[in-house]
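--- STAGE predict ---
source: upstream dedup step, 1 unique chain passed
mode: sequence only
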Amino acid sequence: MDSTNTHTTEPTDGSAAPQETLEPTACSEQEQPPVVLIMHASVGSGHRSAAKAIAQAFDILTASHQEGIPENLETEVLDILDWGRIKFDGDKTASLFTGFTRPIYDLTWRYTFTGRLLWGGGTIWSRIMFPALTEHVRKRPPLAVICTHITAANAAVGARMLSGQNFPIVCVPTDYETEGLWPHLHSDLFCVASESMAETLRPRKVPEERILITGIPTREDFRKSYDKTLVRAELGLPEDKQIVLALAGAYLPRPYIRFRETLDEILPYLHTLSGMHVAIVAGNDEEYARHLRAAVSDLGLGNVTVFDYVEQMAALMAASDLVICKSGGLTVTECLCARVPMILLGKAYGQENINVRTLTALGAAMHVTTARELVDALRHISRNPQSVDAMLINGSFLRRPDAARDIAKAAIALAQKPPAANDPTRKKRFMHFYWGKKPAHIR
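--- STAGE serialize ---
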């Protein structure tokens, strides 16, 4: 997302002061424009996408002279992993918890610190790992800090405590549940996807006034309406068939290995689905795209189209009748905002397990784990095309396309309201564990 008001800032190393990517300015420190920090972690693409969506919302609100937002407001999108004293690749680390190791991740995500022993927040992370971030906010105090990842939120809490600043911290989980390591008692606001998530926060002693149900933030493209006929014509897709969109393009290929294998297994059966046309997005993976095109050609499939990277994904989703996808928080939210039903493919662990359970419990999606189940589901939908209508209606329960704008407005409102002198969120602690109430949702 290109913008004149938004830029990404990175530190020169783990302990030195950061260098901005913008041209040097003649303004003194006191004359610098106000700034909102939007922090993510490069662990997969969802947290980054959510952060960029919020930054885009700020730019739009600023340009439209939204009341309360400074005309010269800037946003900085930061990857917290760039600011660590010890550098590691978050994407590679996330890939370690795939395949046979995924149950380990499921155990830690779902059960560690998600019962009654909880984490409130503290300076430990910032003292040990993120002194450069503390120095950055000390030199240029932000109006607010918005965090789309747990690590970013904890680093922001520590930086505020150590720097003595007073900026509000807004936590934005990007799945349909809140993991237990979010800094519950030292955050000013949790912007969550649903009432179910709010029910998780209340037993964790997060006050009602610090919970806001906004939805998960998506790009501005997902707020728009699209002409299905026009989009299909532009992309060479048939108008008279059900379009089934398979999202197999991956920022991290390893978690998609089994997903892609399952798609390979169903290819020989697609010729039986004469009323459907399957569009498979391979993304930037040229080797995978070549593999798919070769398989489609060998099988003589006339009802399959293979796309490389698609720039207008929101339009393609909106022009589809059904999406086959993994259960990542941003992906399913984009489908909800694009008003397209889903088949969630593959075994789900950790936060993706919660996403599956949330969507299927509402009847907003189907879930299959094998190629045989997927073919059966497609045959059922092909014979009963009206069966997806119920999923579409049920999905509207979670659909909140204005989430990014609502989060931006909430952050500015907090920034304009000074905290009370005895505000517990400003109390300095090295480590803060506490005992919560009985969880609302037993796992």
